[in-house]
Amino acid sequence: MIIYGLETCTLCQRAQKTLNDAGIETTLRDVRAEPLSETEIATLYAQFGDRMVDTNTNDYRSLGMWLKNSETDAQILAQPKVMARPIIQNGDDWHLGWDDDVKAVLI
């Protein structure tokens, strides 16, 4: 199982710990250290659309108007921290966020 997020994201850390404690092997991919490719972004966009970008963060608010009006892929390529986190890949299944619904499916 792959968790896409940030090493410093507490929600990503919590998701990884909970999954590991349940005996599920995970890998946390820090999208700042290892940015998503355009192909990966396209795959994620097909799953989640514009929900991939967290527009409530300071990182998003700090984007220039040109980037705010750009496509999701351009926003994430320019500033990976604006990606909503975590995105969890479990085989062919994808999940956005870490709430009770996602936990119920994965654990």
Instruction: Please state the CA-atom Rg, rounded to the nearest Å.
Output: 14 Å
Element-level helix/strand string: EHEHHHHEEH
Number of strands: 4
Number of helices: 6
Strand content bin: 5-15%
Walk me through the structure.
The chain is α+β, with helices and mostly antiparallel strands. Helix 1 links the parallel strand 1 (about 1-5) and strand 2 (about 25-30). The chain is globular. It has a 4-stranded mixed sheet with strand order 2-1-3-4, with helices on both faces. Helix 2 packs across helix 5 (about 70-80). The chain is about 40% helix and about 15% strand. The protein is built from 6 helices and 4 strands, in the order βαβααααββα. The chain has a domain at about 55-85. The mean pLDDT is about 95.
Descriptive key words:
single chain; 107 residues; alpha+beta; 6 helices
Concise overview:
The chain has six helices and four strands, in the order E-H-E-H-H-H-H-E-E-H. The protein is of the alpha+beta class. Helix 1 links the parallel strand 1 (about 1-5) and strand 2.
Question: How is the topology of this model organized?
Answer:
Layout lengths: L1 E4 L4 H12 L5 E4 L7 H11 L9 H4 L3 H4 L3 H7 L8 E4 L2 E4 L3 H7 L1
Parallel strand pairs: 1-2
Antiparallel strand pairs: 1-3, 3-4
Helix pairs in contact: 2-5
